[in-house]
Amino acid sequence: MLLIVAGWGACLVPFAFAPLGVTLICFAVGGLVYGPFVPLTYALFQSITTTANLPSVLAARSAALIVATPLGTAIGGPIVAGIGAGWTLTASGAATVGLTALATLVWRPRPSRALAPSPV
């Protein structure tokens, strides 16, 4: 999933300085890269959450996304007005790639359930 996020961010980076044709191709590639993200996140939630807790976890996720959309618009609007749409997309892409790199450094994979010792 981190590769998907980094790939999407990388597709946004050229928007401030690339010609229109390149940015259109970047948007198309970005859409292809990002496409599997939502199904993968749902599969991840389903695999690491108990059946009893799954409705609450998915409701919390939805609540966070409902708040994030207008908040992002409220924050992004003045940024677009200040530096322009192209530079805003470039800054967003660079921040996304940077945060993905940071997340990659601090992420620790969980041991596989199949390899975990069984209780005695």
Structure description:
The chain is an all-alpha fold and 120 residues long. The chain is built from five helices and no strands. It has one domain (2-106). It starts with a helix and ends in a 14-residue tail after the last helix.
Number of helices: 5
Helix content: over 70%
Shape: globular
N-to-C span = 35 Å
**What series of H and E elements makes up the topology?**
HHHHH
Radius of gyration: 18 Å
Helix and strand content put the structural class at mainly alpha
Averaging pLDDT over every residue, what do you get? Answer: 90
How many E-type strands? 0
Any low-confidence stretches, pLDDT <50, length ≥5? none
Main β-sheet description: none
How many domains would you count in the coordinates? 1
Note the beta-strand portion: under 5%
Q: What keyword list fits this structure?
A:
mainly alpha, 5 helices, 120 residues, 75% helix
What's this, in brief?
The protein is an all-alpha fold.
Fold blueprint:
Elements: H1 2-12, H2 20-34, H3 37-48, H4 54-83, H5 85-106
Helix pairs in contact: 1-2, 1-5, 4-5
